[in-house]
Design a protein that fits this description.
Distance between the termini: 111 Å
Order of helices and strands: HHEEEEE
Oligomer: single chain
Largest sheet: 5 strands, antiparallel
Strand order of the largest sheet: 1-2-3-4-5
Strand content: 25-35%
Structural class: alpha+beta
């Protein structure tokens, strides 16, 4: 009599396993993409914080003298503050090629705000006050 073949059931099971594998691969790829983005953002934040801290230490060492602090970190003094520009790898760059910008703006006598920005947004900011001795 008619013997039924098990081939359609095997093909259905194989198609289902392929679908499950595809879904798992899609989830894994999205997790890897998110982790790469998080690692990049974490690296940006870490570098921004380190450079802001360096600028704050230079400002405090210079006792609130913006020009002296700018010279200490290799920045360009301008008005009541200074700016330093970085490329994508946090190496010194010209203003027109900069991916990141560190700015220090003096807000009051011996007080300043340091901002590190990149990609059109502020990544990190820090308020600093210098102690001025003997005067």
């Amino acid at each position: 009599m008619g013997k039924r073949s098990g081939l359609p059931a095997i093909l259905m099971e194989l198609a289902l396993m392929l679908l499950v594998f595809s879904l798992c691969a899609a989830v894994c790829l999205s997790v890897f993409a998110a982790s790469r983005r998080t690692a990049r953002e974490s690296g940006e934040l870490s570098s921004a914080a380190a450079w802001a801290q360096s600028a704050a230490e230079a400002y405090r060492y210079a006792e609130g003298d913006v020009e002296k602090a700018a010279a200490l970190i290799g920045a360009e003094a301008a008005g009541n503050g200074f700016a330093r520009y970085f490329d994508g790898g946090w190496a010194a760059a010209d203003a027109d090629e900069a991916a990141y910008t560190l700015t220090l703006s003096q807000t009051d006598a011996a007080c300043a705000r340091i901002t590190v920005a990149g990609g059109g947004k502020a990544l990190f900011f820090l308020d600093v006050k210098a102690v001025v001795y003997g005067g």
